[in-house]
Amino acid sequence: MKYLFFLISISISAQIKGVVKDSISGEPIPFVNIWVENETIGTTSEADGTFFLEASKQKSIVISVLGYERKTLKGSEISEVFLKPTTYDLREIVILNKKQSKQIEIGDIKNAIFQSFDNGPKIEAKFFPYQASYSKTKFIKEVTIFTDSRIDDATIKLHFYSVDENGFPGEELLTKDYIVTLKKGVIKHRFNISQFDLVFPEKGMFVAYEKLLIESNKTGTKYQPYVLYNYVERDFFYTYAYGKWSKQSGENSEKISVNEPSINLILSN
């Protein structure tokens, strides 16, 4: 029995080590999202593409990052992981008439009470519904996020999603990762994204943050930054866990009280 228990303990506490590389160039891919399928265990690859994951090698591991095809492998198959770059259809060139003489901020919560959490899921999304009035300020000029960081130069990844046919976060609106650097302290950060020429979708959109579990963000056993949240009532809330998006909603169309990441958008004409 002791021998059997010892084998089980080894299986549970096994560490999966690997490196993620571009299948064409062979270059390492940083900040890759790595999850144990159907579990909340996950990590992020370092700047040199390496990662360590505390999980059994018999588990299925989901490996994904924007700009590359998603891959699922058994932990025992992982050492060097090669991801194939995604092929994007070339878009027609469109001349956009952006005046930026008018702007509005959306998503702001009046009388908000901010809270910070460290033990939540790694990716959480805030939904921004479309309103007809946005046709006058349809370009996404800036994204803001309120964080509490204990270190300088903490990094975080921001995502912009369309809405799929089921109302879930769908395709990413950018073709490359958008990673931002944050200053130390409790700060509302503003990032200008007007260079991406994003137009607010008429079905609405999701904006999400992804916490990067990398050594440069680590303080003790915690990872920086802490994203601040607003306690609000919503019809639904989406969280990325178990390697997929899940929806939290009330029964009989009732609203639910949730902690929502304090992310806003600034639209312009």
Automatic annotation (TrEMBL):
Q: InterPro entries in the record, alphabetically?
A: CarboxyPept-like_regulatory
Q: Please give the organism.
A: Flavobacterium proteolyticum
Q: Per its record, how is this protein called by name? A: Carboxypeptidase-like regulatory domain-containing protein
